[in-house]
Amino acid sequence: MQPIDLELFFEQQQFDCEKIAHPPLADCKQADALELNRPGARLKNLFLRDNYGREHFLLITRPDKQVDLKKLSNQIGKARLGFASTERLWCHLGVKPGCVSMLAVLNNSSNSVAVLLDTDIWQNNHLFQCHPFVNDRTWIVTKLQLEQIFTHSGHEVAVISVPERAL
């Protein structure tokens, strides 16, 4: 897969956003350790697949939420959800682990990935921290820009209450 030129896309759409460089961050814990102070909602981005590997999902939630995948599977009516492989991530979203964000739907021209947004983050924020296909940068993107990206890419978004695992 050849990812789109994200800089060019933002320029063509006349999207302006703050761009922040930082050391590579593989996950939310690494970001916590650096104590980076960036505007916008921090996100946890999970790439999931159903038990049969036929359906794929990009789940966006709070970084501190421990998602109950069994309850989520039941909630959306899909066979047991699990984490998709690195190969599937590259094939469907054109990014590597640690680089996943909502922006990656632009690489999914087949619309083979369903987007699930947690109400916890989507309804209470207007700025979002997104990796631009790499994990050593963060772009601060507005909700309106993301909605336009979803429309442009043809992805319908389900805003749901994501179940949390009891600790």
UniProtKB/TrEMBL annotation:
Sample GO molecular function, one term:
aminoacyl-tRNA deacylase activity
Superkingdom:
Bacteria
Q: Where is the YbaK/aminoacyl-tRNA synthetase-associated domain?
A: 22-147
Which Gene3D superfamilies does the record associate with it? Answer: YbaK/aminoacyl-tRNA synthetase-associated domain
Write one Pfam family the protein is assigned to.
tRNA_edit
Query: Mind listing the UniProt keywords for this protein, alphabetically?
Result: Hydrolase
- Which family does this protein fall into? Belongs to the PRORSD1 family.
The name of this protein is Ala-tRNA(Pro) hydrolase
Q: To which species is this protein native?
A: Pseudoalteromonas ulvae
